[in-house]
Design brief:
- About 25% of the residues lie in helices and about 25% in strands.
- The protein is an alpha+beta fold.
């Protein structure tokens, strides 16, 4: 009896600890249960897909897809007559299969009237499907998510009609489309970078090193060091075609005296303002080398002719 009494006396404590462990135990993300944002298909959507925004209460689109839950607040309020509409197009065509979720989150000024739609292309359906509709009902909450219906969705449309901020303005931290079978964890979060084996790449946009506003696929503000650089250049062998019009040396001399640079070669001013394309410049330099070769051959023929003429004159 004493043993039973001791055991039953400690039972409440055991039950409390078991309850605490159960409550605090981690739920694992699976096909049918997405706990976190790691499978958000919309990471960096503004650079990976086509994202447009219309309406009166515009927000910073870049911050909607960066994985950082700092809200962007509109300067004016969305209205039912002129709602804030964010359209995302070009999503990968993966069926929702066992489960997928769509929604939004914010810290302050959440929407209280909104609608979420998705464009279903499964089996050629090509129709807009309403996923959530709070256009006629007031929603209270600072975040929202709903399970996606079965289908293959290539577009999403978020329509925000009214919000709870000052003067009716709206705040949004993140838009998400959680799709465990369409993306690997945090896929696209690093500003459009993707990986395949040991290779890292991006499908669109420019890469800058030493610059924050690159205007080319790769722009480096500094020195590039390499053991070899291979440029896919064009040839200049057209110089050796019979119909190529080779300028006379007199024409070249006159052009150089007037323009202070060779024909077909950009001037120093043009090179300084526009830079030099290695492929194009390599072709132009090769063109000039081949033209020089033709001039040398012509001069060689003239020299041979003069030598033979001198020999004949001396004999006479």
């Amino acid at each position: 009896m004493k043993t039973l009494f001791k055991w039953t006396k400690g039972l409440p404590l055991c039950l409390f600890l078991l309850s605490a462990l159960t409550t605090r135990s981690q739920t694992i993300t699976t096909n049918r249960n997405v706990v976190g944002m790691e499978h958000n298909l919309l990471f960096s959507a503004d650079t990976r897909y086509q994202v447009t925004q219309t309406g009166s209460g515009t927000i910073d689109l870049r911050r909607m897809f960066d994985g950082v839950f700092t809200p962007s607040y509109s300067g004016t309020a969305p209205t039912e007559q002129n709602p804030t509409v964010i359209l995302i197009e070009g999503l990968p065509a993966y069926h929702t299969q066992a489960g997928a979720w769509v929604g939004w989150s914010t810290r302050w000024w959440p929407a209280n009237k909104f609608k979420i739609e998705a464009y279903n292309v499964h089996s050629g359906a090509n129709i807009w499907v309403t996923v959530a509709d709070y256009s006629q009902t007031i929603y209270s909450g600072s975040d929202f998510n709903v399970r996606m219906p079965s289908g293959t969705f290539s577009k999403l449309r978020f329509t925000f009609m009214s919000a709870t901020g000052t003067d009716g303005r709206i705040g949004i931290s993140e838009l998400f489309f959680l799709h465990p079978e369409a993306t690997t964890p945090y896929y696209g979060l690093k500003n459009g970078w993707e990986s395949s084996g040991d290779n890292a790449f991006r499908r669109s946009g420019n890469v800058g090193i030493g610059t924050t506003s690159p205007t080319a696929k790769l722009e480096v503000n500094g020195t590039i060091r390499a053991t070899e650089i291979k440029v896919e250049a064009q040839t200049a062998d057209f110089v050796f075609e019979e119909d190529y019009e080779l300028k006379s040396l007199e024409e070249v001399e006159q052009f150089v005296q007037t323009n202070k640079h060779l024909p077909d070669i950009p001037s120093a001013k043009e090179m300084k303002e526009n830079g030099v394309g290695l492929a194009e410049m390599n072709k132009l330099l090769l063109q000039k080398v081949e033209e020089l070769t033709l001039y040398i051959l012509q001069q060689g023929k003239r020299i041979n002719y003069l030598e033979k003429s001198n020999q004949y004159t001396n004999k006479q």
